[in-house]
Specification:
The chain is an alpha/beta fold. 45% of the residues lie in helices and 21% in strands. The protein folds into four domains: 126 residues, NusA, N-terminal domain (N Utilization Substance Protein A, Chain:P, domain 4), CATH 3.30.1480; 66 residues, Beta Barrel (OB fold (Dihydrolipoamide Acetyltransferase, E2P)); 77 residues, GMP Synthetase, Chain A, domain 3 (2-Layer Sandwich), CATH 3.30.300.20; 69 residues, 5' to 3' exonuclease, C-terminal subdomain (DNA polymerase, domain 1, Orthogonal Bundle), CATH 1.10.150. It has 17 helices and 15 strands. Helix 1 packs across helix 2 and helix 5 runs antiparallel to helix 8.
């Protein structure tokens, strides 16, 4: 028949959901600690609980070695010769037990220490049991009861264990009352945490997924598939769905008749906004859908390998596409798994203009190229930081006169020289253009005649034929 102590241990084990032998080992370890503290010894101590009587015996253990010379620690070792004086049948490697008196001598402090050790061992065993039970259930939806509220944290009862839901795992729209039943996601199991080892969440996207599976039969039976979810708890959720049956509208199935299905989920999430989007394999089409309610003008793939998109919207749609504090585009990017850059039509136009301007290489002509500028004037301009003809042409007379050593007459001289320089450039370009046209005409003539065109009777006939109509109009013919 089991003792009262062992029955108590058995009841405690069932309550905590741990193996009774773990509690027994904890009690035995506690007695060893208390005994060592009382006797102040370094002996190898052990304790045993008698299941029937409930008594705990403590004893010191010595290991038997063959010769006295092999005894390295007399406190924990004994030679075979000495051991056989106590037990003739002992062999090398065997152990001898020396009882230690514990009843009535350990005292209150030792008993308190033993109690602390027992509680610590039981807590460790309990945490191991909880860890093993829940580590394989991460991501699962469970029903829990609000047990207590500790500051920003909510402690929930899962049945076999407690769970903690921190502030980051809660929706800002929600408040909880003790005793309230809620659905939560097991987000992780932490063996080393000080509080409850199970961490649960109401902010995880898996909660929304589970709610849709519960409310939408087409998702539950696999006709409609949830391809992606992006969520900011308490604000907005975007969910992408697709249908495996061409006759079933994925978005319509999730919304339900008159929005009843999605409204039920919104109520469960305390009014969180939900956007249901049709999934597309094509990233550009999917991006247009994901950025709803904004209307997108065009989507361009910037880098397919790095998953980078550029989206252009009308100027009036820019703020809607970005959303409050960037929420709409942030959720869309998370839903797609692509980086999204949003630009308005005006921003895109300015960007293109800048790119075109960058392609035009600005010319810079040194001042020495301008005839009529003396060396002294060039030196004064260069000292003032004016080194090119283009920069000189952009300056006003007042700016030129502000340069040391340059007066009104010099300004007129500079203006005349610059104007003549640009006029010569323009005339040179015109001459080059005329020369180019002449060369082109000559090349065309050579191509048609398969060689240089020489003066001939045929050519003269062509000229006379061209002139004939004009003559006919100017002079009346006889007989008219």
């Amino acid at each position: 028949m089991a003792s009262e102590l062992y029955n108590t241990i058995d009841a405690l084990s069932r309550e905590k959901g741990i193996d009774p032998q773990i509690v027994v080992a904890a009690v035995e370890d506690a007695i060893v600690v208390a005994t060592r503290k009382y006797y102040k010894t370094q002996e190898n101590l052990r304790a045993e609980l008698d299941k029937n009587t409930g008594k705990i015996r403590a004893y010191a253990v010595k290991t038997v070695v063959e010769t006295p010379e092999q005894v390295e620690d007399p406190v924990q070792q004994m030679s075979l010769e000495e051991a056989r004086k106590l037990n003739p049948e002992i062999e090398v490697g065997g152990e001898l037990h020396f009882p230690k008196e514990t009843e009535g001598i350990l005292g209150r402090i030792a008993a308190q220490l033993a109690k602390q050790v027992i509680f610590q061992k039981v807590r460790e065993a309990e945490r191991d049991t909880v860890y093993n039970d829940y580590i394989g259930r991460v991501g699962e939806i469970v029903n829990a009861t609000i047990k207590r509220i500790e500051g920003p944290d909510v402690i929930l009862d899962l049945g076999k264990a407690e769970a903690k839901m921190g502030r980051k795992e809660q929706s800002r729209l929600e408040s909880f009352a003790i005793g309230e039943r809620v659905r939560v996601v097991i987000s992780r199991v932490d063996r080393a945490s000080k509080g409850p080892a199970v961490i649960v969440s109401r902010a995880a996207p898996e909660l929304v997924q589970n709610l849709f599976q519960t409310e939408v039969p087409e998702i539950y039976d696999g006709t409609v598939v949830i391809r992606a979810i992006a969520r900011e708890a308490g604000e907005r959720t975007k969910i992408a769905v697709m249908s495996k049956d061409k006759d079933v509208d994925a978005v319509g199935a999730c919304v339900g008749m008159k929005g009843m299905r999605v409204q039920s989920i919104i109520r469960e999430l305390r009014g969180e906004k939900i956007d249901i989007i049709e999934y597309h394999e094509d990233a550009t089409t999917f991006a247009e859908k994901a950025l709803q309610p904004a209307k997108v003008s065009r989507v361009t793939v910037v880098d397919a390998q790095d998953k980078h998109l550029e989206v252009v919207v009308d100027d009036s749609q820019l703020s809607l596409a970005i959303g409050k504090k960037g929420q709409n585009v942030r959720l869309a990017a998370k839903l797609l798994g692509w980086k999204i850059d949003i630009k308005s039509e005006e921003e895109k136009r300015q960007e293109v203009e800048q790119q075109m301007s960058a392609m035009v290489v600005p010319t810079s002509t040194p001042l020495e190229s301008v005839p009529g500028l003396g060396e002294g004037v060039v030196e004064r301009l260069t000292a003032a930081g004016v080194t090119t003809v283009e920069a000189l042409a952009d300056m006003t007379p007042e700016q030129l006169e502000a340069i040391e050593g340059i007066g009104p007459k010099t300004v007129e001289k500079i203006s005349l020289a610059v104007n003549n320089y640009f006029a010569s450039l323009e005339s040179g370009e015109a001459a080059a253009e005329i020369e180019g046209e002449a060369v082109a005409a000559e090349a065309t003539a050579e191509t048609v005649g398969e060689g240089p065109v020489e003066p001939s009777e045929t050519n003269e006939a062509v000229v006379e034929a061209d002139a004939a109509p004009e003559t006919a109009e100017s002079e009346p013919q006889p007989g008219t």
